[in-house]
Amino acid sequence: MFVDKPEWVTHAGKAIHSVDISSSGSRLATGGADNTVRIWNLAAILDVKVETSAAPRLLATLREHLQAVTAARFSHDSRYLASASDDSLACLYEVRPGQATAAFGSSDSPNLENWKHIRTFRGHSSNIADLIWAPNSLTLVTCSVDNTIIVWDALTGRQAHTLSQHRSFVKGLAWDPTGYFLASHSDDKSIIVWRTEDWAPVATLTEPFTKAIDTTFCLRFGWSPDGQYLVAVNSNSPIITAPMLKRGSWQSANQLRGHEAPVVTARCSGRLFKPPAVAAQPSPGQHAVIAVGSKDTRISIWSTWRKGGADSPVKPITVLRDLFKLPPVDMAWTPDGYSLLASSEDGTLAVVRFEESELGRVLTPPEMEAHMAQLYGSERRQPGYLPPDNDECLEADEPAASEPHATAQGVNGTGPHEVATAQEALAARLAPPNGTAATLNNPSSEAAAAARPSTQRRAQGRELVAAGRPDGGRAAAPVQAAARQRQITASAPDPASHSAIVEPDAVTALLRQGQSARTVEVKNQAGLATLVVKSEGEKAWEFRLQGLALKVATSPDFVAVGMKSGFIQVLSPEGRCLLPPLQLGAAPAFLVADEHRPSRLLAVSVTGVLRQWDVATWQCCKCDFNQAPVSDLLTEGQTVRSMLVSEAGDPLARLSDGTVWLLHPTLRAWVLIAGRDSPAAAFASLIDPSGTGGAGAGEMSRLQAEAVRGAVPRQQPMQAALAALAMRQATIKDRERTDAELKLAQAQALASPVEYRRWLATYARMLARDADEARLRELCDMLLSSESALPQPIVGAAATRPADGDRAAPGKPLLGWDWQRLLRDGVLKELVKCRATQALAMEMKDRLSIPFASPIKPAAPARE
């Protein structure tokens, strides 16, 4: 056994309330009384050679909380990190590629790892004592001294359930490794075991805790790796013990006794062991190893195979004394099962490393699987954890109601505004983790649905209409912000019980030349999605898909259905399969048909992944944008209202604050096209370059007008308000110039040639009015220079975008305009009108290689 206390693992000398190790075994997360979460290089803690090398130690410091951090936990897939605090909030983080930056106003150096705060969970009214992830890493549960437990959909931020059966502070949570039970420990001297299928209490355990002493803020307890024992804490009946409660009977099978003060933490190693060869001891098939921490500042290590006799209590392997000056608070085992890390109220961390000769040999994966199969059967189903927390759940013996019904919109539609949250959750519980491919008229689908147990709860269905609009379906279902890569929700509340977030669209028909108007309806029932195409009210054809349909999009060339499993099935207007099922990777949040290119389909998943396909040519038009997921647009409280496609074929996202963002193909980033949230936010459009208002002003002007009308006013923090005031105090000329510069860049990003030419002339006219020769010369040089900073021009939407960093030579067209002609007719004609800039105009005229007086019209951009 090796014991160490790395002094550099610290939270400024304050208490370390939480420790957790990622399943990958590479990181340690600690939460402390200094209000921070710190992420450490675990190798530097466990290995002295790494510690003394140049390898990094502290990987990141997260400062989202305002009070002490009480818990920090990695998801089981190591993808996310969640933290809870005395400020009554829980936060979700995700590690992203790229360079991290230091927090604004902080003197700390930038983090070595780029951990991004993607969501805040608000729901508790007081301090959060603990949090825990479900084994599937999709559900998060928090408990608080407000006596409640909240079950969260971690990926969408939805508050699925509130459990309020405890009568006092809830101080600890433990999730059964098999996923079927969640246990909660409370100051009401009880543990409640909850069934995660329906969140009903299975057992309320009080006997071991009747004389428990309320001496600690947190109670950390856990299950054995096979889920057979729940190791509880703070038992005093009549002596201080940590009882091992047997699964099912929930009776105490063993007592871990010997501590002189209340036990506050108990953690089982995540591995089962074969005991070492000891002649005097019986040799069971496998055993668990348990670490117990007490208010007496000691930590004891136990093994379930070390017994003095048939009726004797379990004996400890070792007792660690003098590790801490104050009691331990939390403990965590490394994934290999041999190392224990413990934190204390004295602000230190201890590392204890065991050998195989002390604990035994770890069971191999086949041995562990065989053991679990013996306990629970070979076909164990991992349950889901988010059945809906509302009145839509009916009793098991009630007949199945029809499930949600969706009707597809027309040529430009984005899919239904609403999906049945109850049935979505039910589907999530019943579907395999990676979903099932959509199938055509699969008889086994109906049989499988009919064979499902009658004990499952069913949601009352409702018919949903997905309607299109001529603008590409801009009023689509809202996308909830918060996260991370942020999770985007594809569901909306039941309109019967909640106020509508988005007004429903009118039904738009699927139109085809030479045929009558058609509508597409999708009805989810009994595990099948039935797509029905009607012509003038009469059914034209029908198509069945296995699973739950969430989104539908139609164009004159195809009908596309997005499934909750992430599959997208594309059909012809006559019901023929055009493509095999496409896997988006997660459930679709938006499905949009391109108004200008009827063979193109845009899809955005609930995880922010964006894809665009041409179903006619079997090509992916846009797919390599993982560096700029849709979730990057979402700050706290915002939602994505709709996804659009620009006239140039690029994805557009409209947010709830009215802003419109374009995913630029060469910048590989979202750029602001319309709205108020930009560095030049206070410079609202003060001028109308067309002179005729919004009519006929182009795509950018239309989007800007709609953004202003749809903007949601928000309260500004004091610093932001003062900054806005300072900007408004700028001169009118400066504001006009900044607005013109911004519009010029946005027109270029949007590939809008007419608006680019119009704003270029407007900008030149303002500079000439102000006799701003420096900016005018820079503008003229930019249009003439072969080393121009402008990216390679795009001739219409069909042109291929250049690679990053490409430059354009003079004479090549920009958005359909020749650069020298832009200079001649868009800039110089404005300069000659002002006496102060005529000399510059003549100088630039001499540098032109085309006649100054010849008329020019813009080249029509090519469109597919």
TrEMBL record:
InterPro entries per record: Beta-prop_CAF1B_HIR1 (IPR055410), HIR1-like (IPR031120), HIRA-like_C (IPR011494), Quino_amine_DH_bsu (IPR011044), WD40/YVTN_repeat-like_dom_sf (IPR015943), WD40_PAC1 (IPR020472), WD40_repeat_CS (IPR019775), WD40_repeat_dom_sf (IPR036322)
Residue ranges of domain CAF1B/HIR1 beta-propeller in the record: 2-359
Lineage top rank: taxon: Eukaryota
Gene Ontology CC entries for this record: chromatin; HIR complex; nucleus
Swiss-Prot/TrEMBL GO biological process terms: chromatin remodeling; DNA-templated transcription; regulation of DNA-templated transcription
PROSITE patterns, A to Z: WD_REPEATS_1 (PS00678), WD_REPEATS_2 (PS50082), WD_REPEATS_REGION (PS50294)
Compositionally biased tracts (Polar residues): 436-445
Region (Disordered): 433-459
Keywords, alphabetical: Chromatin regulator, Nucleus, Repeat, Repressor, Transcription, Transcription regulation, WD repeat
One Gene Ontology term of the molecular function aspect: nucleosome binding
CDD domains the record matches: WD40 (cd00200)
Residues of the Protein HIRA-like C-terminal domain: 575-783
WD repeat spans: 9-42, 62-103, 121-162, 163-204
Any Pfam family: Hira
Location of this chain's protein in the cell: Nucleus
Family from the record: Belongs to the WD repeat HIR1 family.
PANTHER family in the record: MEMBER OF THE HIR1 FAMILY OF WD-REPEAT PROTEINS, PROTEIN HIRA
Function statement: Required for replication-independent chromatin assembly and for the periodic repression of histone gene transcription during the cell cycle.
Protein known as: Protein HIRA
Organism, scientific name: Symbiochloris irregularis
